[in-house]
Design goal:
The chain is of the alpha/beta class. A hairpin with a 2-residue loop joins β52 and β53. The longest helix is centred in the last third of the chain and has 49 residues.
Length: about 950
C-alpha cells in the first residue's frame, strides 16, 4: 500500500503532460486578435522584404500564431508578442493593435512607419516593452497621456517620434512606476515645466539625446525628482546644455555610462564630481567648450574603459594619472590644445587593454616616437596633425593587432622600411601623408596586410611607381599625390582599379595616356591633375565617375564624343575639372547626361563655338569656369535656370551681345561674376544691383557704355562685414568619406592676374575698367564701405571724385586713371590708411595734392597727366607755396647759423677731450720714461704693495679656517 501514492502521482503527472500537449495542438490564435493583425497589415503599404507574406486568410495561414513576427501564449492562444524590427515596413500604425490586450512586447522599430501614433495603444495594459523608435522621423505623437494605461511598462523607446507638442511628457513618465529603460532621443522634446510629482525611482537607463533641452529645464527634473537615483546609463548628448558640469552628478554614484557630448558645456572638469563616480565605465564629453587641464581625478576611476574628451579646448600635457587606468580600452583626446612631449611609456598600465588611441589634432611634440610595442591589443592609432619629428620607429611593426594607423601631417622624417609596416597583417587603413618620409622597399618585399585605404601624399615614393602596391587586391582608396613619381601608370593598376572608389596621383610627373577601359569602376573619384599626361580623354572615364580632375596636363582632342556615354552612377558626376589642357572643339550638347554636376571647370583650353543651351539643365551647378577659351556668341538664356550658381567665370573669351539682365534676378546667389575681356556691349543692367551676395564683380575690358548704376549701393555684401568661402563637400561613396572642395578664381590684382582660393573671401572688388562708360562716379558707391578694390580706369567718366571717398577705409587698390575726371583730389582720400596702390593719372584733375603720409609716398606717376595738379610728390609747386618758400628760406638761414654755432661748440668740446688725454697720459708716463730714479721708486712701491696685500690675505684666510675648525 505504501507504493500506491507514488504510483498515483506518476499517473497524474503523465495525464497532465498529455493534456498539456493536446492543449498545445488544439489551441490556435484568437479570431478577434487575428482580425486585428490583418487590419494592421492593411495599413502597411510597403513591405520590401515580403515579411508579412505569411499573414493572410488562406487555409494554411489561418493560425496567426505561426505568422512571422507573432508569438502567442501556449495555453490561451492570445498574442503576447509582435516583433517586426528592421524589416523596412512602411505605412501607418492603425488603432487595431489596441485590440491585442494580452500583448506584452511590441517592437516595430527601425522601419519607415509614419503618421500619428494611435492613442489606442494605451489599451495594452499588459504591455511590458514598447519599441517604436527610429522610424525615419515620420511619426508624431501629440501627447503621451495614453501611457497611463500601461502600468506594467518596463521599456519604452519612442526615439525619432516627433513629440514637440507633448508638453506634459515628464508627468506621463512619472506615472510608470516600473519603468527601467526610457529612450526619447531626437524627439524634439518641449521645454520641461517643473513638476513636483514623484518620479520613477526605478529608471536604470535614460536617453534624452538629440533634443534641444537646456540646462535650466532638464537639470531640476533630473536631479530633484530622482530622489533615490538608480541610474546606470545616462545620455544627454546633442542638446543645448550650457554652463559648467553640475556638481550634482556626484550623487549619481551608480552611473556606469555618462554621455554629455556635443553640448555647450564650459569651464573645467569638476574634480570632486568625477572622483565620486567610481563605477563609471564609459565617459563621453566630446564636442563642448571645456578647457583647463585633464584632471588627475580620473586616476581614482579604476573602472573606466572608454574616455572621449575630443573636440574641446583642453591644454597641458596628458596627465600621468591616466597611467593607473588598467581597464582602459578607448582613449580619445583629439582636437584639443594638448601639448608637451609624448613620453616613450606614457600609458604603462593600459598596454594590455588599450584598443583605440586618438591624440590627433593637438600640439603634441616629441623628439622620439613613443614606444607602443607593449600595446598588444591596440587596433586603432591616430596621432595625425601634431608636431612629432624624428623617425618612424620599428616598434610600430610589433603592433600585431593594428588595423588603423594615422600619423599624417607631422614632421616625421627618415626612411620607411618593410620592417616598419609590412608585418601588420590586419592593417586596412594606413595614412602617413604630409610627412618627410622616404620609402625604401625592394621589389621582392610584400606586405602581409590587404589594405582598403592607403594615403601617402607628400611621402617620397618615386621615381618609379611603388611595386608593392601591386599586391593590394582590396584597395578602395589610394592617395600618392606629390610623391615624386616620374613614371607611367603601370597596367596592373588599371587592372585592379575595378573596385576602387578614390585614386589621387596628382602633383607628380606621371606621363603617358589614359587607357580606354571597357568600364571604369562605379562611383569613381579620380584626381590626376598636375602631371604630364597627354593624348585624348577616353570616353569610358565619364561613365561611372562622380569626381574627375584631369586639370593641368596636356590632354588634347574633343570631349564632344562623351555624349555617346551615359553616366550610370546613381550619384552622377558632380565634379568635372579639365582646365589647363589643350582640349579643343565645341562644348558638348548633352549636358543633361551630367545633370548632377556641381563644379564644371573647362578653363584655359581651346574650346570654340557657342555655349549650348542644354547647359541650363545643370540645375545643381554651383561653379562654372569657362575662362580663357575661344567661345563666341551670346550667353544662352537657359543658364538662368542654374539658380544655385555661386561663381561664374567667363573671362577671356569672345562672348558678345548685351550683358543679360536676367543675371541679377535669376542668379541671386552669385558671389563671383567675372566677365572680363569679352565683347559684351550695351549698358550695365540695373538688375545686376540685385546681386546682394556678390563680392567680386568684374566687367572690365568689354564694350559697355552708359553710366554706372546708382543702385550699386544694393550690393550689400560689399557694405557688410563678413564674407563667404565658395566651397562644398562631396561624398565619396566607396570611401564613405566627404571630400571638401574650395573654389578658386583668377583675379586681376594690382596689375597682374593672381589665383585666389581660400583668400578669395578677403576680396571685395568692383572692376569696370577698359569700357566706354560715361557720366559721373555715383556717390552711392561710397556706401560699399567694405570694398577692398575699385577699378574704374580707362573709361570716359567725368565730374569730380566723390568728396567722401575716404569712407572706403578698407580700400587697398584704387584706380581711376585715364578718364576725364576734374576738380581737386578730395582731402578725405588721405584717410585711407591701407591704400597700397593708387592711380589717378591722365585725368584733368587740378589743385594741390592733399598732404598726408600715404599720398606723398606714391610715385609721381600716380598723378601724372593731370596738368592742373601741384605739390609733393610732383615737382611742380603750387602758387600759394611761394610765401612759405621764403619763410622756409629765412628759417633755413637761421637754422644754418645755429648749425654752424653747434658745430663750433662740438669741435671745441672734442678738442679739449683730446688735449686733456695727451696732457694726463704724457704727464705721468713721460716723467717715468725720462727719470730712471722715479721709475725705480714707482715700481718698487708697486712691488711692496703687492707683497703687503699677499701677506694680509694669507693671514686672514688662516684665521678664518681656524675659526671654522673650532
Amino acid at each position: 500500500m505504501s507504493g500506491r501514492p507514488f504510483q498515483y502521482l506518476i499517473v497524474f503527472s503523465l495525464l497532465l503532460i498529455a493534456w498539456w500537449r493536446v492543449g498545445d495542438a488544439e489551441v490556435g490564435c484568437i479570431e478577434r486578435e487575428r482580425e486585428a493583425l490583418l487590419h494592421f497589415k492593411q495599413g502597411v503599404v510597403y513591405d520590401y522584404y515580403g515579411v508579412l507574406s505569411s499573414w493572410g486568410n488562406g487555409e494554411d495561414k489561418k493560425d496567426c500564431c505561426r505568422w512571422t513576427g507573432v508569438e502567442c501564449d501556449n495555453h490561451m492562444g492570445h498574442v503576447i508578442m509582435l516583433d517586426l524590427p528592421e524589416h523596412f515596413l512602411g505605412g501607418k500604425i492603425g488603432p487595431s493593435l489596441g485590440e491585442l490586450q494580452h500583448l506584452k512586447h511590441l517592437n516595430l522599430s527601425k522601419n519607415v512607419f509614419k503618421g500619428i501614433l494611435p492613442p489606442q495603444l494605451g489599451n495594452l495594459s499588459n504591455l511590458q516593452s514598447l519599441d517604436l523608435g527610429y522610424n525615419n522621423r515620420l511619426m508624431t505623437c501629440d501627447n503621451l497621456d495614453w501611457l497611463s494605461g500601461l502600468p506594467l511598462l518596463r521599456q519604452l523607446d519612442l526615439s525619432w517620434v516627433n513629440l514637440s507638442t507633448a508638453i506634459q511628457w515628464p508627468q506621463a513618465i512619472n506615472k510608470m512606476p516600473f519603468l527601467t529603460e526610457l529612450h526619447l532621443s531626437y524627439t524634439q522634446l518641449p521645454t520641461i515645466s517643473i513638476s513636483h510629482n514623484n518620479s520613477s525611482n526605478s529608471l536604470v537607463l535614460l536617453d534624452l539625446s538629440g533634443n534641444c533641452l537646456t540646462s535650466s529645464s532638464i537639470y531640476p527634473w533630473l536631479f530633484n525628482l530622482f530622489s533615490i537615483s538608480s541610474l546606470v546609463h545616462l545620455d544627454l548628448s546633442y542638446n543645448n546644455l550650457n554652463g559648467s558640469i553640475p556638481d550634482a552628478f556626484e550623487n549619481m554614484t551608480t552611473l556606469a555610462y555618462l554621455d554629455l557630448s556635443f553640448n555647450q558645456l564650459q569651464g573645467e572638469i569638476p574634480k570632486v564630481t568625477f572622483n565620486n563616480i567610481s563605477c563609471l565605465v564609459d565617459l563621453y564629453l566630446s564636442g563642448n567648450q571645456l578647457h583647463g587641464s585633464i584632471p588627475d581625478a580620473f586616476a581614482n576611476m579604476f573602472s573606466l574603459e572608454s574616455v572621449d574628451l575630443s573636440r574641446n579646448q583642453f591644454e597641458g600635457e596628458i596627465p600621468k594619472s591616466l597611467r593607473d587606468l588598467c581597464n582602459l580600452r578607448r582613449l580619445l583626446l583629439s582636437y584639443n590644445n594638448l601639448n608637451g612631449i609624448l613620453e616613450k611609456d606614457f600609458l604603462p598600465c593600459s598596454n594590455n587593454t588599450l584598443e583605440a588611441l586618438d591624440l590627433s589634432h593637438n600640439c603634441i611634440r616629441g623628439t622620439s616616437f613613443p614606444n607602443l610595442s607593449g600595446f598588444s591589443r591596440l587596433r586603432e592609432l591616430y596621432i595625425g596633425f601634431n608636431q612629432l619629428n624624428e623617425t618612424l620607429p620599428e616598434s610600430i611593426g610589433q603592433l600585431a593587432g593594428l588595423e588603423v594607423l594615422d600619423i599624417s601631417s607631422n614632421s616625421l622624417q627618415g626612411i620607411v622600411l618593410a620592417n616598419h609596416l609590412f608585418g601588420l597583417s590586419k592593417l586596412w587603413y594606413l595614412d602617413l601623408s604630409f610627412n618627410s618620409l622616404t620609402f625604401n622597399i625592394s621589389l621582392n618585399q610584400v606586405p602581409l596586410f590587404q589594405a582598403q585605404f592607403i594615403r601617402l601624399a607628400s611621402c617620397k615614393l618615386g621615381p618609379c611607381f611603388p611595386h608593392w602596391l601591386h599586391t593590394q587586391k582590396q584597395l578602395s582608396g589610394l592617395d600618392i599625390s606629390a610623391s615624386g613619381i616620374s613614371d607611367v601608370i603601370p597596367n596592373w593598376l588599371w587592372n585592379s582599379i575595378a573596385s576602387w572608389g578614390w585614386l589621387n596621383v596628382s602633383n607628380n610627373h606621371i606621363s603617358g595616356t589614359l587607357p580606354n577601359l571597357t568600364s571604369y569602376p562605379p562611383y569613381l573619384g579620380m584626381d590626376m591633375s598636375s602631371n604630364c599626361l597627354d593624348g585624348s580623354i577616353p570616353q569610358s572615364i565619364f561613365k561611372n565617375a562622380i569626381w574627375l580632375d584631369l586639370s593641368k596636363n596636356t590632354f588634347s582632342g574633343s570631349i564632344s564624343l562623351s555624349c555617346e556615354i551615359t553616366n550610370q552612377s546613381s550619384w552622377g558626376l558632380s565634379h568635372l575639372d579639365l582646365s589647363s589642357n589643350r582640349l579643343s572643339g565645341e562644348l558638348p550638347q548633352c549636358w543633361e547626361q551630367w545633370k548632377d554636376l556641381i563644379v564644371l571647370n573647362l578653363a584655359n583650353n581651346n574650346f570654340s563655338g557657342k555655349i549650348k543651351k542644354s547647359i541650363g539643365l545643370l540645375h545643381y551647378m554651383q561653379t562654372l569656369h569657362l575662362r580663357n577659351n575661344n567661345l563666341i556668341g551670346a550667353l544662352p538664356s537657359a543658364l538662368k535656370n542654374c539658380r544655385d550658381l555661386h561663381l561664374v567665370d567667363l573671362g577671356k573669351n569672345r562672348l558678345s551681345g548685351r550683358l543679360p539682365s536676367w543675371i541679377g534676378g535669376s542668379l541671386s546667389d552669385l558671389i563671383v561674376l567675372n566677365m572680363r575681356s569679352n565683347e559684351f556691349n550695351g549698358s550695365i543692367s540695373l538688375n545686376l544691383c540685385r546681386l546682394r551676395k556678390i563680392q567680386l564683380l568684374d566687367l572690365s575690358s568689354n564694350n559697355l557704355s552708359g553710366t554706372i548704376p546708382k543702385c550699386l549701393k544694393n550690393l550689400t555684401a560689399m557694405a557688410q562685414k563678413g564674407s563667404s568661402i565658395i566651397a562644398y563637400d562631396d561624398f565619396i561613396y566607396k570611401e564613405s568619406i566627404t571630400r571638401s572642395y574650395v573654389d578658386n578664381t583668377m583675379v586681376q590684382w594690382k596689375g597682374k592676374e593672381s589665383e585666389f582660393r581660400k583668400n578669395l573671401r578677403l576680396i571685395k572688388s568692383i572692376d569696370f575698367s577698359s569700357n566706354k562708360l560715361v557720366g559721373e562716379i555715383p556717390i552711392e558707391v561710397i556706401d560699399l564701405v567694405e570694398l577692398v578694390s575699385l577699378n574704374l580706369s580707362r573709361n570716359n567718366l567725368s565730374g569730380s571724385i566723390p568728396a567722401t571717398i575716404g569712407q572706403l577705409k578698407f580700400l587697398d587698390f584704387l584706380d581711376l586713371s585715364q578718364n576725364r575726371l576734374q576738380g581737386g583730389i578730395p582731402d578725405s582720400i588721405s584717410q585711407i590708411a591701407g591704400l597700397s596702390v593708387l592711380d589717378l593719372s591722365n585725368n584733368t584733375l587740378s589743385g594741390k595734392i592733399p598732404l598726408g603720409t600715404q599720398l606723398q609716398s606714391f610715385s609721381a606717376s600716380t598723378y601724372e597727366g593731370n596738368l592742373g595738379l601741384c605739390g609733393p610728390p610732383l615737382l611742380k609747386r603750387c602758387p600759394d607755396d611761394k610765401d612759405e618758400s621764403r619763410e622756409v628760406s629765412f628759417t633755413g638761414l637761421n637754422g644754418k647759423k645755429d648749425d654752424i654755432r653747434d658745430d663750433a661748440n662740438d669741435i671745441w668740446f672734442y678738442g679739449n677731450i683730446v688735449l686733456g688725454f695727451i696732457i694726463g697720459f704724457w704727464g705721468v708716463c713721460g716723467t717715468l720714461l725720462l727719470h730712471s730714479s722715479w721709475r725705480y721708486a714707482y715700481f718698487k712701491f708697486l712691488n711692496k704693495m703687492k707683497g703687503l696685500l699677499y701677506v694680509t690675505t694669507t693671514i686672514s684666510m688662516n684665521r678664518l679656517r681656524r675659526s671654522f675648525q673650532s
